[in-house]
Design goal:
binds 4'-phosphopantetheine, 6 helices, alpha/beta, 5-stranded parallel beta sheet, single chain
Length: about 170
Amino acid sequence: MTPSNRIAVCPGSYDPVTWGHLDVITRAAQLFDELIVAVVNAPMRKVQTLFLAEERIEMIRQATTQLANVKVEAFDVLLVEFARTKNAMAIVKGLRAISDFEYELEMNQLNRQLSPDMESVYLMASPRYSFLSSSGVKEIASFGGDVSELVPEHVARRLTEAYERQ
Ligand code: PNS
């Protein structure tokens, strides 16, 4: 990595991507030369995702076509390992509330233990997205509620299709 090629990784489950994620991705893309949106492709907390990793990746790609320095990739190893293999200088995450802070502080300490040189950067959620989460969006969509203000149109469509199939 050279000072003119500052790479960061923006990890998450993105099941599915919301306007809150896209706000953080857009703002992070302005801070780094290259931003890799890293999509977890491994069972997390024993929770089954609604969408396959390939589907989640495709939805993010469609939503970020206008961001030239953003790439979207899957990962199934420790986040710090993935970031290291990508020559990233930082991990970027969004913070919405105190509850996020507690979880992220724990992750930060663990990641720092594993990789002391990998810096983590936290972007505060824009107020309009502070209470927006993928799980909230899925709950609304699963009851046929309107999520058109919460996710891009193509994601809302995929949610409707997914719950119609179930
Ligand atoms: O809250 P999310 O979106 O499910 O976040 C997932 C992720 C990977 C960003 C978070 O759990 C984290 O920071 N994990 C660090 C520990 C790790 O590397 N886990 C392996 C993931 S494959």
